[in-house]
Design a protein that fits this description.
Blueprint lengths: L3 E4 L9 H18 L1 H12 L9 H9 L3 H23 L4 E6 L2 E9 L2 E5 L8 H14 L3 E6 L9 H10 L3 E4 L2 H10 L9 E3 L4 H10 L4 E2 L8 E5 L5 H12 L7 E5 L2 H16 L5 H12 L1 E4 L3 H11 L3 E5 L3 H7 L5 E4 L5 H6 L25 E9 L1 H18 L2 H14 L13
Parallel strand pairs: 4-5, 4-7, 5-6, 7-8, 9-10, 9-12, 10-11, 12-13
Antiparallel strand pairs: 1-11, 2-3, 3-14
Helix pairs in contact: 1-2, 1-7, 1-8, 2-7, 3-6, 4-5, 4-6, 5-6, 7-8, 9-10, 9-11, 15-16
Length: 436
């Protein structure tokens, strides 16, 4: 059966790249030239913030004191799960050593970066979970200095519940900064901070572009676009679950694609009939975001069998992939391209977004074809080392000299030659490459 689009997207998720790129590049150039003065100016202009940039210990304690104990307990629950999963990840990243040939030892070491900058989005929503995901993961990886920033709200600063999450998860310094200026302050080591080695965390298109431009000067978690989600469902799926799950992700923003691939025409029709009603009972701004995302970016795809659904999923490589179908073990073994996989109706992407453990900072816009999401690995370097005996250096030196000369790299060859002459005086070696 050829797949049939019962609903087709009329727009593709992308930003106004030219305008955004130019604006961000100009801001970064100004911050490079003027430093903290430019950061403060942009903070006043974009966040309407006139207060302190570096959150004082007193202000941190005052913000934490305003958070209800119930909210603190909820944040502690999520933090414990995310930390536990990150610790399990770290246990899979091991040092190793091997004797490659007799006398030649080589190995790898795992070294965390010194400093990380964690961006926590603000704006429409208070992204408590993003603070937990980024800071906790950096700390579990072993990063020595973690800075976190988030857009301050006029007259308030960073929402208290985000400050509590940042504090609980181990942020050394908290900055009342959002947007490009927040990212640049961490990357450039302003306000007396160490320069970040890695920047992590989701953000709007301006934050994403700033990280893209800064990449190379610093490491980043990934290039991020609008969040996207796909559901794979058969006739056993619950239409109410599917419809709610789609809209729960569409509320992220007007350009957040959601896709349903199903083998059941009846389920597809039921979901499409239910979605508009679910959108209309959302509060604002969620309602407008979900309405636009569903109208312009959502797709409903009718497939002939499970294999066709899997092919669609692998082609789209969604950030979030939720299977609500029979034989979950088959899907776990078959699917190849996704940021994070959710198996069965008993879980939902919202669990992963907020509390369940695996990180919610994930590849978007098809990037799951070649990369995974944020993990302890993003804050660590896998480096290699080697040590050789003189006996091992004999064979290594001869072959290195010949390959180097074959490549035309005489300096490389001579660094092998000199060791052979010193270690094995009086011995003659064939150091010339073979003739063509």
């Amino acid at each position: 059966m050829t797949v049939t689009y019962l609903k087709k997207a009329v727009r593709a998720a992308h930003s106004d790249e030219g305008d955004v790129k130019n604006a961000v590049a100009a801001m970064l150039a100004a911050i490079d030239a003027e430093g903290e003065a430019a950061v403060r100016r942009f903070s006043r202009e974009f966040d309407k913030w006139e207060g302190e940039i570096v959150l004082s210990d007193e202000a941190r304690r005052a913000a934490i004191a305003r958070v209800p104990e119930k909210t603190k307990d909820d944040i502690r629950f999520a933090h414990a799960n995310i930390a536990r999963f990150a610790q399990a990840q770290k246990a899979t990243v091991l040092d190793c050593a091997i004797e490659v040939i007799p006398g030649l030892m080589a190995g790898q070491k795992q070294i965390p970066v010194e400093a990380a900058g964690c961006y926590v989005p603000g704006g429409r929503y208070a992204h408590i979970a993003s603070a937990i995901m980024t800071i906790t993961t950096a700390r579990v990886a072993g990063v020595r200095h973690v800075v976190a920033c988030s857009p301050p709200r006029p007259g308030l600063g960073i929402p208290p519940e985000i400050v509590f999450a940042m504090d609980l998860c181990g942020a050394d310094v908290i900055l009342n900064l959002g947007g490009v200026q927040g990212v640049a302050a961490m990357a450039n080591g302003l306000f007396g901070l160490p320069k970040a080695d890695v920047l992590a965390g989701p953000g709007n298109q301006y934050v994403a572009e700033a990280k893209r431009i800064l990449y190379g000067r610093v490491g980043i978690d990934m290039f991020a676009g609008p969040t996207d989600s796909m559901i794979l469902a058969d006739e056993s799926a619950d239409a109410e679950f599917v419809a709610n799950d789609l809209i729960g992700q569409a509320e992220h923003g007007y350009n957040s694609p959601v896709w349903l691939a199903t083998t059941s025409a009846a389920l597809a029709e039921a979901v499409m009939a239910r979605v508009p009603d679910l959108i209309e009972v959302l509060p604002e701004p969620n309602r407008s975001s979900a309405r636009a995302a569903w109208a312009d970016y959502a797709e409903v795809i009718l497939c002939g069998d499970a294999e066709e659904m899997a092919d669609i999923a692998d082609r789209y490589a969604p950030e979030h992939l939720h299977v609500q179908a029979a034989d979950l073990d088959w899907w776990l073994g078959r699917l190849q391209a996704y940021g994070s996989l959710f198996l069965g109706e008993e879980t939902t992407v919202a669990f992963g977004d907020k509390t369940s453990g695996p990180n919610h900072v994930l590849p978007t816009s098809g990037a799951a074809r070649y990369t995974g999401g944020l993990s302890v690995h993003k804050f660590m370097k896998t480096v290699t080392w080697q040590r050789a005996t003189r006996a091992a250096a004999r064979d290594l030196g001869v072959v290195t000299a010949r390959i180097s000369r074959k490549e035309g790299m005489e300096g490389h060859a001579r660094s092998a030659d000199v060791r052979l002459a010193r270690f094995f005086p009086g011995e003659t070696f064939d150091l010339a490459p073979a003739e063509d």
